[in-house]
Inverse folding.
C-alpha cells in the first residue's frame, strides 16, 4: 500500500531533486550559472556542484537565495515529482535552447556549442 509520505525511490536523494529542479528553473529564466551566482551572491562552483551532484549538503539559506534570484519558491526547488506523472508540470514551457544550455552547463560542458557556426578567416 502506497502512502502520501512514501520514501523516495532508491538512489534518488533530496539533493538530486534539488539539482534537477535548479537546472529547470535556471533554464526557464534562461540564465547561466555565473549570472545566477552573481544574483544570488553565492559561488558559481556551489551552483555547479548542486546541479551535477557531488555535494553532500547545502545550507537552506543558500537554497533560499537561489530561489529568490530565480523568482521561484523554496518549495519549487525542493519539489519531488509524482511517480505517476510522465513529466513535470510546466516543463513544456521551457525554450529548448535554454534547456539544452542549462543541461550542458550543469554537466560541465560549454553553455553554447560552436558547432555549425561559420569559421572566420584571419
Amino acid at each position: 500500500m502506497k502512502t502520501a509520505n512514501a520514501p523516495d525511490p532508491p538512489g534518488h536523494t533530496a539533493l538530486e531533486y534539488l539539482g534537477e529542479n535548479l537546472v529547470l528553473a535556471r533554464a526557464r529564466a534562461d540564465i547561466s550559472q555565473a549570472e545566477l551566482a552573481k544574483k544570488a551572491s553565492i559561488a558559481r562552483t556551489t551552483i555547479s556542484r548542486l546541479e551535477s551532484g557531488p555535494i553532500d549538503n547545502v545550507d537552506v539559506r543558500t537554497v533560499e537565495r537561489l530561489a529568490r534570484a530565480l523568482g521561484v519558491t523554496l518549495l519549487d526547488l525542493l519539489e519531488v515529482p509524482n511517480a505517476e506523472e510522465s513529466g513535470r508540470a510546466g516543463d513544456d514551457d521551457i525554450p529548448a535552447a535554454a534547456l539544452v544550455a542549462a543541461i550542458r552547463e550543469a554537466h560541465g560542458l560549454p553553455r553554447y556549442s560552436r558547432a555549425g557556426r561559420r569559421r572566420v578567416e584571419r
About this structure: Confidence is low (pLDDT under 50) at residues 116-120. The chain has one domain: 14-106. The domain at 14-106 is CATH 1.10.260.40 (434 Repressor (Amino-terminal Domain)). Helices lie at 14-29, 33-40, 44-52, 60-70, 74-78, 96-106.
